Amino acid sequence: MDFQSCVNIKKEWDIVGARQLGRDIARKIGFGTVDQARIATAISELARNIYLYAGTGKICFEAIEDMNHKGLRIVAMDDGPGIKELSQVMEDGFSTSGGLGAGLPGVKRLMDDFDIQSEDGKGTEIKAVKWLR
Amino acid sequence: MDQKLKDIVIGHSDDIVKMWLEEVNKKKSSDYTATISDELFESTNREFVNVIFTSIEKSGLTNDLNDFSERLINLGWPLSYLTDGMQVFRRVITEYILKQSEQIDSDYFAEVLRKVDGWVDPVINQLVNEYSGSWEHIVSLQRVALQELSAPLIPVMDNITIMPLIGTIDTERAKLIMENLLDGVIKHNAEVVLIDITGVPVVDTMVAHHIIQAAEAVRLIGSRCILVGIRPEIAQTIVNLGIDLGKFPTKSSLRKGFKSALELTNRTIEDVQSKEQDIENLIDSLNRE
Ligand SMILES: Nc1ncnc2c1ncn2[C@@H]1O[C@H](COP(=O)(O)OP(=O)(O)O)[C@@H](O)[C@H]1O
Ligand SMILES: [Mg+2]
Of the residues A56, B57, B63, B79, which has the fewest C-beta atoms closer than 10 A? Predict the structure, then answer.
C-alpha cells in the first residue's frame, strides 16, 4: 500500500476532520478499537498544536508496511514559529499556553515510533507510527 | 439606442415568452424539477417570466421579484431553477434582438450584450442574495439550537444533577459546559454532579483539561463532580497521555456513578419488587406445609 492522504488544518473543526480520516484509515488497516482511539487522540493532539501554535499546517496519513507488519504513519507539518525548547517539550507538563503540556509526550506514548524535527522560525514536522500487532 | 432595444423586447414580449417557455420546458424532463407537477411548473414559469419583464420595463428591481423569490424559497425550489432560467432568458433575448436588427457590427453587438447583461445580472444577483440570506438565517438558527443541546443539565433528583455530553467538544462548547455546570449547580442546589462522557468520541488533553477545570470549579462552590461513562479504550488513552484524574472520582458507567452519588448524599436504592417477591415466596412455602 502506498497512498497518502492529507487534511489541511486551518480552523478548529479541521481537527475533527483529520481525526475522522485517520480513524477511518486505521480501521481499514485493521487496528482494533483501543488502537483506533489511541491514533485518533494522537492526531487530535498534533492537529490542535498546529491550530494553536502554528496557525495553519497539515496532517498526512500513510499506510505503511515492512517485512513483518503493517502500520500507519502520521505526519504533522507546519511552517509556524518552530519549537525553541525542543528538549523541554518532551517532558510532561511543559506548556507555553497554560495547557496540560501532556500532548507531545502523550503522543510519543500513544504511538510506537516518534520523531520530531523543528527549527526556530521555520516550522515543525512530527512523524509518528503505530504498528499493527 | 437604449430605448430602441427595450422597445424591441417589450414590443415582442409574447414571442420572447414563448421561446423562453419552450426552452425551459425542455429542461424539465431530466433534472431537479422532475418531481414538480406540470401545472405548477408551467404557472411558475409564467410568473417567473412576467417578473423578469416587469423588472426590465421598470428598469430596476421590483417588489414582485422579492415576493416571487420569497415564495419559491419557502416552497423549497432550488436556486438553480432560477439561475438556469435567467441564463436561458439571456440567450433567448440576445438571439431575438440580433435577429430583429438589420445591420450588425461589432459595436452594436457589444452594445446589445451590455444592455442584456444590465437587465439580467441585477435580477440574478437579487435572487442569489435572497437565497443565501435565507441559508445564513437557517444556519444561525441551527447554531442556536445546537448550542442549547451542547451542555444540558438534568436535575434527576434532589441534590443530584447529570450533565450528559454527546459529540465533539471544541473550545466554544468547553466554555458552555463550564458556564452551564456552575449555573446549574447553584440553581438546582446540587451536591453531586455526574458528568457523563459516554458520547464523547475522543478525550484528548484539551478535553481532559477542561473537564478537570470544571470539576475543580464545582468543588470550589462546595459541590462534588463524578466523571462517568469512561469507555475502556478512553481509559487506556487517558493513561497513555499521562493525565492524572486521581483528584476526582471516576466511574465506568452512569449507573455506578449514580449509586455513589446516592451514597454521598446518604441515600440508597431499595428494590421494592424483590421484597414483595420474597414475601410471596415465603407465603407460598408456608402454604405448602
Ligand atoms: N506545531 C508547533 N509549533 C510550535 N510550537 C509547538 C507546536 N507544537 C507544540 N508546540 C510547543 O510545545 C509545547 C508543548 O506542547 P504540548 O505537549 O502539546 O502541550 P500543550 O499543547 O498543552 O501546551 C506547547 O506549549 C508549544 O509551546
Ligand atoms: Mg498540545
Answer: B63
| DSSP letters for B193-215 | EEEEEEE-S---HHHHHHHHHHH
| DSSP letter string, B72-121 | HHHHT--HHHHHHHHHHHHHHHHHHHHHH-S---HHHHHHHHHHHHHHHH
Start-end of H helices in chain B: 2-11, 13-28, 38-57, 63-75, 79-100, 106-150, 171-187, 205-220, 232-241, 254-264, 272-288
CB contact under 8 A, A34 and B232: yes
Q: Do B205 and A16 touch (CB under 8 A)?
A: no
What is the pLDDT tens value at each position of chain A, 133 positions in all? 445 799 999 999 999 999 999 999 999 999 999 999 999 999 999 999 999 999 999 999 999 999 889 999 999 999 999 999 999 999 999 999 999 999 999 999 999 999 999 999 999 999 999 999 8
For residue B200, the chain A residue with the least C-alpha distance is A37
Asked whether A89 lines ligand 1 (CB < 6 A), one says yes
CATH H superfamily, domain A4-131: Histidine kinase-like ATPase, C-terminal domain (3.30.565.10)
Which of B92, B119, B147 terminates a domain? The answer is B147
Task: Report the separation in Å between the CA atom of A101 and the middle of ligand 2, taken as the mean of its atom positions.
Answer: 6
Examine the fold and report which residue of B78, B113, B147 is the final residue of a domain before the chain moves on: B147
Contact assignment for A99 to B205 by CB distance below 8 Å: yes
Q: Check CB contact of B243 with chain A, cutoff 8 Å.
A: yes
Predicted TM-score of the model (pTM): 0.74
Q: What's the domain count of chain B?
A: 2
For ligand 1, atom 5: residue with the closest CA = A83
Domain that residue B227 falls in: 154-264
> What residues does A124 pair with on adjacent strands?
A78, A118
A91 vs B: CB within 8 A: no
Out of B168, B171, B205, whose CB is closest to A106? B205
